[in-house]
């Protein structure tokens, strides 16, 4: 089975003559847009945030994975432009959706960004377009929610337009991989859409991994993140148990990972951060209720990981009392690292935000230093922290604090200086031991 719309689009993609639109120019969308432009397509990036468009027009990238030079090259070549005007979607042959999929306060999926974007596409939807969802979501979203909205136009998926899903696999801060070098899972709503997906992404990335359906591709992404969430929860639980036994979990992991088979190292921390690992597993938990099936591993992992900030603050309070005879309520604490991950400025779902709140709920005072984050922006869950600024990391500043809590092990931090100047250090990342900085006032949590 074929269609003239499919054949024309396939030919256009094969010749790199298709116009591509990428909606959502964040940590996923902007690297994808530049990778597509670099492969020879003409790309228009769409975003509702005017400040992003201003920055891009000025040649300034706000995403670490895209350098100013890379952005400038594609813009100068006429292969990349950005806009807030979604009316231009009608000119695009391929449209890729890269918008957030957060949770509500009750841990239910919030598909409002996907739905609003789908309605925006529907306004200019025409025959012969390929629409792709990359946002992480529960199985059935692409063929259910997105397709239903687009087909309200009277056009039919698989005949008039084509619909696919390809999960994003960005890893902020990981310089070993970029968008074009990471294998891309692809699927389509029917054989014609699947063929278009393979041809389009095959022109952009080094390898594609076709799967049988959009729901399968959606499940692949959830499985990848659930795997990490569950295993991180396991080592977080082991950390607490082994600590009670006087055993260092970090030493255990270093020894265990020498086994050349049957083991993969995961590492504990002060809690989970980022847009994926703390959120995505609950998309499957929510969807499973429709089938009256429990997701005990996922929910237990979520409980363990969510409890880590409170555990760390408990260890901090205990150390202050035992070593300084001082209550947390009368102490000031400097948190090292606001970002959820080392060497990136991304604070989405960062446990550091929760650590600040917990310390202050107990009457303490909390400040932060982060070489990648100057100021706490507005966040949905932590509005009261908006506007707080990173303090300098110098001797006078450090000595004013009763304790230093390392939440994120950025490389651009002088840990030797911290070890010299801080009266008490709580290390949740094993960063001091890794550098051979061992002392009685440096404790792990």
Ordered list of secondary-structure elements with their pairings:
Layout: H1 4-14, E1 19-23, H2 29-38, E2 42-46, H3 50-57, H4 68-76, E3 80-83, E4 94-97, H5 112-122, E5 130-133, H6 141-151, E6 162-165, E7 184-188, H7 191-202, E8 208-210, H8 214-244, H9 249-256, H10 281-288, H11 296-324, E9 332-336, H12 351-361, E10 365-369, H13 395-399, E11 403-406, H14 415-421, E12 425-427, H15 431-434, E13 442-444
Parallel strand pairs: 1-2, 1-4, 2-3, 4-5, 5-6, 7-8, 9-10, 9-11, 11-12, 12-13
Antiparallel strand pairs: 6-7
Helix pairs in contact: 1-7, 5-6, 8-11, 11-12
How would you describe what is shown here?
- By secondary structure, this protein is of the alpha/beta class.
- An eight-stranded mixed beta sheet has the order 3-2-1-4-5-6-7-8, with helices on both faces. Strands 10-9-11-12-13 form a five-stranded parallel beta sheet, with helices on one face.
- Helix 8 packs parallel to helix 11 (296-324).
- Helices cover 39% and strands 12% of the residues.
- Strand 4 (94-97), helix 5 and strand 5 (130-133) form a beta-alpha-beta unit.
- It folds into two domains: 4-212, 3-Layer(aba) Sandwich (Rossmann fold); 228-444, NAD(P)-binding Rossmann-like Domain (Rossmann fold, 3-Layer(aba) Sandwich).
- The N and C termini lie far apart (60 Å).
- The chain is elongated.
- The longest helix has 31 residues, at 214-244.
- It contains 15 helices and 13 strands.
């Amino acid at each position: 089975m074929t269609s003239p719309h499919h054949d024309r689009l396939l030919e256009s993609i094969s010749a790199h003559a298709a116009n591509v639109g990428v909606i959502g120019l964040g940590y996923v969308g902007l690297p994808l847009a530049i990778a597509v432009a670099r492969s020879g397509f003409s790309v228009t990036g769409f975003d509702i945030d005017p400040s992003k468009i201003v920055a891009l027009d000025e040649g300034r990238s706000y995403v670490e994975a895209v350098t100013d030079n890379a952005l400038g090259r594609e813009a100068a070549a006429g292969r990349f432009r950005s806009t807030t005007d979604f009316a231009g979607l009608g000119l695009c042959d391929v449209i890729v959706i890269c918008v957030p999929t957060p949770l509500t306060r009750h841990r239910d999926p919030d598909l409002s960004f996907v739905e609003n974007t789908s309605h925006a596409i529907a306004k200019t939807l025409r025959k012969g377009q390929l629409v792709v969802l990359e946002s992480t979501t529960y199985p059935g979203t692409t063929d259910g929610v997105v397709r239903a909205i687009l087909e309200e136009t009277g056009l039919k998926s698989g005949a008039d337009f084509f619909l696919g899903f390809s999960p994003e696999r960005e890893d902020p801060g990981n310089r070993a991989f970029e968008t074009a070098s990471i294998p891309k899972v692809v699927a389509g709503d029917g054989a014609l859409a699947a063929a278009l997906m393979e041809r389009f992404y095959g022109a952009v990335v080094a390898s594609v991994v076709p799967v049988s359906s959009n729901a399968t591709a959606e499940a692949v992404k959830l499985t990848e993140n659930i795997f990490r969430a569950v295993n991180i929860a396991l080592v977080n639980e082991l950390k607490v148990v082994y600590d009670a036994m006087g055993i260092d979990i970090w030493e255990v992991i270093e020894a265990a990972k020498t086994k050349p088979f049957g083991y993969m190292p995961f590492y504990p921390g002060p809690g989970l951060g980022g847009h994926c690992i703390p959120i995505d597993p609950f998309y499957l938990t929510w969807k499973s209720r429709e089938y009256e099936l429990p997701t005990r591993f996922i929910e237990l992992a979520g409980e363990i990981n969510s409890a880590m900030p409170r555990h760390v603050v408990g260890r901090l309070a205990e150390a202050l009392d035992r070593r300084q005879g001082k209550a947390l309520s009368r102490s000031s604490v400097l948190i090292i690292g606001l970002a959820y991950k080392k060497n990136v400025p991304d604070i989405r779902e960062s446990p550091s935000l929760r650590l600040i709140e917990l310390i202050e709920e107990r009457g303490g005072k909390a400040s932060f230093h982060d070489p990648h984050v100057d100021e706490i922006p507005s966040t949905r869950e932590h509005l009261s922290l908006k506007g707080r600024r990173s303090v300098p990391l110098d001797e006078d500043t450090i000595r004013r604090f009763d304790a230093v809590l390392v939440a994120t092990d950025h490389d651009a931090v002088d840990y030797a200086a911290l070890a010299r100047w801080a009266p008490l250090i709580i290390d949740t990342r094993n960063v001091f031991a890794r550098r051979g900085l061992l002392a009685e006032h440096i404790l792990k949590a």
